[in-house]
Amino acid sequence: MAKKDFYSVLGVSRQATPDELKKAFRKLAMKYHPDKNPNDKTAEDRFKEVNEAYDVLSDVKKKQMYDQFGHAAFQGGGPGPGAHGGPNPFRGFENFGGFQGFDPRQQSGEFQDMFSDFFGEFFSGENTQPGRRGARQDNRGADLRYTLNITLEEAATGAEKRINFVRHRAGKEDSAKLSITIPAGVKAGQRLKLRGEGDAPPTGGKPGDLYVIVNFQEHPLFKRKDNDVLLELPISFVDALLGIQIEVPTLTGKAMLNIPPGTHPGQIFRLKGKGFPDIGGYAPGDMLIKIVVDVPNNITAEDREALEKLRKTSSHTPLVTEFRDKMKRLLSQRS
Q1: What phi and psi, each to the nearest 5 degrees, are found at residue 238?
Q2: Where are the chain's structural domains?
Q3: Across the chain, how many H-helices and E-strands are there?
Q4: What is the Cα–Cα distance from 54 to 19, expressed in whole angstroms?
Q5: Which CATH fold would you assign to the domain 222-330?
Q6: How far apart are CA 243 and CA 66, in angstroms?
Q7: Quick one: pLDDT at residue 67?
Q8: Residue 313: what pLDDT?
Q9: Rounded to 5 degrees, what angle do the CA atoms 80, 83, 89 make?
Q10: What pLDDT digit, counting tens, does each position of 31-42 carry?
């Protein structure tokens, strides 16, 4: 059976703005959500259809591919759901809010936040207090949300973290303390679900769940891009000219980096396997080191004399020579 046009599924035009797409998705997802339509196969199919359409149209790159090639952009061996292969590291998270087959690996951060925003509305129809999702109509306690800040080093190696939070149990506030295992390779925005650790209904019933949202602390040296770790390494212009072997920090220790003579500003060196491990068990990322050539603000008279001697060789450097040749040819064409 031919797939429906994704724009038609959401009931929007091809010129719809991101806000219009979000509004349409929100309305339809609430209408067809399995929790509001138990044992309704038609509603379940429509919910999955709406989810698939929004997952594509809310992603800039996927939307561009769809607008150009239609559904064929995601067929013929293209990366679809499950294309990564291997076990799902989020096994046990699938029944998130009654949505069978939900895989957080396939969802954008905006999509996940969208679900966070209105899960409470599905379950209660009332405004919930910060950090809480409303209680289900089936006498289930409210789900709780906890943001956990970790370092990039902890994300690389995994960690055991202790959290303290307040929940409602037996009709009153309960101060809870839990130990959480952070898996190596976890990414910012990923959720760890702890079943039954949320609020309990005051009249008895099943407790809600606790969702721990991982957030990264700002690092003084490193930045993360996918599974790679990025480092800007300043070196003196003398070291860039002559070359140097220098010790650099890594996520788990340190390593020696050989910088060859004639290294240019912005040049990138790669340390294989020194990035973040893949949470699904695939090859780890790399460490990418970008060279920043540092030039002194003040120099002594002796330094200046040495540099004046060095200036005489600058005409033989490859980029300067190439530029001067190009400029000479350009000016000769104008005369």
Answers
A1: -70, -45
A2: 222-330
A3: 9, 11
A4: 12
A5: HSP40/DNAj peptide-binding domain (2.60.260)
A6: 48
A7: 82
A8: 67
A9: 115
A10: 998 888 888 889
Residue 184 near residue 156, CB atoms below 8 Å? yes
Which pLDDT does position 188 carry in this prediction?
Answer: 92
Task: List strand residue ranges (DSSP E) for the chain, in order.
Answer: 144-150, 159-169, 172-182, 191-194, 210-216, 222-225, 228-236, 244-249, 254-259, 268-271, 287-294
Q: Report the pLDDT value the prediction gives residue 251, as an integer from 0 to 100.
A: 95
Distance (Å, rounded) from C-alpha 200 to C-alpha 208? 6
Residue 317 is predicted with a pLDDT of 75
Check pLDDT > 60 for residue 118.
no
Cβ proximity of 241 and 306 under 8 Å: no
Q: Which amino acid is at 323?
A: F
- Check whether 136 has a pLDDT greater than 60: no
- Among 109, 125, 102, 101, smallest CA distance to 36 is for 125
Are residues 30 and 122 in contact, defined by beta-carbon separation less than 8 angstroms? yes
Unique residue bearing structure tokens 């891009």:
225
pTM over 0.85? The answer is: no
Helices 60-69, 41-57: axis angle to 10 degrees equals: 100
